[in-house]
Amino acid sequence: MSSSIVPNTYFFDFSFCSPRVKKPIRIDGDLSDWDSSSLVPDLMHFISQKPFADVYFSWDYDNIYIGLSVINKITPVDVDPIRFWAKDCIELWFDFRNEKPVFKYTEHCHHFYLLPQGRKTDKQLATAGECREPGSAIPETIYHHKEIEVASIVEQNGYSLEACIPRSVIPTFDPINYPLIGFNYHINNTDKKAQWWSSGTDFARQVDPSTWGTIELVETLA
Asked: What residue ranges define each of the domains in the chain, with the CATH number in brackets?
């Protein structure tokens, strides 16, 4: 019997609940102030792979927070600030109206990337950027997004990273009136590994927000 060419995840609509943080998260690369309620669920088991990273998501009324811990790396941490997808980074996609099944970008859609290091002259500094997609919220790709607060701790076998994306960058973020947001992430790795939620490279996720999963923003978990 031949195996199906359709990815297992094609048959599911993925979502999870994210509780609001009661006080701002300190962005210093140390993930000790995150707890398990903010973990993004693992989907790699659908393709019989083990995750190599923990990803955290949370929010308050003015910000979105991202945490990332990558462990057991074999190759040293390395980044490419321009071709960011070629080395270590996490890509993040958001649709702040979750307008499924709309298949194209709108002004509510954003594609961010976070790098654990900066350019050659300041490699100790983490970097944030935003990638322009047709129909999206920005007119051109921003390779160093100074409005996004980001920090990392790089170690021999991995790194941790935190970022705060403020409302000034995502002006249509409205958690009170629109508590369901579209979301997808992809972690690129110099070990030639990849981890994602909720759509992998089998989907046209760069151009099609309908392939992204959903986060429900809640005050507390039931």
From this structure: 25-218 (2.60.40.1190)
Strands 63-70 and 89-95 come out as unpaired
User: How open is the CA angle 114-99-203, to the nearest 5 degrees?
Assistant: 55
Q: How far is CA 169 from the centre of its chain?
A: 15
Whole-angstrom Cα distance, residue 90 to residue 115?
7
65 φ/ψ angles, rounded to the nearest 5 degrees: -120, 140
Q: pLDDT for 97-154, tens place per residue?
A: 998 877 788 999 999 999 999 765 565 689 999 999 888 888 899 999 999 999 999 9
Could you give the maximum distance between any two Cα atoms of the chain, in Å? 55
43 DSSP assignment: -
Report the run of H or E that residue 64 belongs to, with start and end. Answer: strand 63-70
Give ∠ CA 147-221-23 in degrees, rounded to 5: 40
CA–CA distance, 39 with 124 (Å, rounded to integer)? 26
Q: How far apart are CA 7 and CA 198, in angstroms?
A: 12
Backbone Cα Rg of the chain:
17
CB atoms within 10 A of CB 161: 28
**Under a CB-based contact definition with an 8 Å cutoff, are residues 2 and 46 in contact?**
no
